[in-house]
């Protein structure tokens, strides 16, 4: 697994999403709960990013 990365906007914050790319999966976690890791397929990751960009999670 690669190193964990977080968005540039979260560089100094404590509550940020973090992502690590593996050869067969994408791993996602919160900096608040680094032991709770979700594993996504490449297709699931693309769908999630697309939904975020399209505002599907905006309140």
**Helical content class:** 10-25%
> How many β-strands, per DSSP?
3
If you average the pLDDT, what whole number results?
91
Q: In percent terms, what proportion of residues is strand?
A: 25-35%
> Ends: how far apart?
33 Å
Features:
59 residues, alpha+beta, three-stranded antiparallel sheet, 3 strands, 20% helix, 31% strand, globular
Describe the overall structure.
With 59 residues, the protein is of the alpha+beta class. It has one domain. It is 20% helix and 31% strand. The chain contains 1 helix and 3 strands, in the order βββα. Strands 1-2-3 form a 3-stranded antiparallel β-sheet. The protein is globular, with a radius of gyration of 12 Å. It starts with 16 loop residues before the first strand and ends in a 6-residue tail after the last helix. The mean pLDDT is 91.
In short:
By secondary structure, the protein is an alpha+beta fold.
Give the SSE layout.
Layout: E1 17-21, E2 26-30, E3 33-40, H1 42-53
Antiparallel strand pairs: 1-2, 2-3
């Amino acid at each position: 697994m690669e190193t964990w990365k977080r968005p540039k906007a979260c560089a100094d914050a404590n509550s940020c999403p973090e992502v690590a790319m593996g050869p067969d999966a994408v791993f996602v976690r919160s900096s608040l709960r680094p032991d709770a890791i979700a594993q996504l397929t490449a297709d699931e990751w693309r769908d999630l990013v697309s939904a975020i960009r399209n505002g599907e999670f905006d309140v």
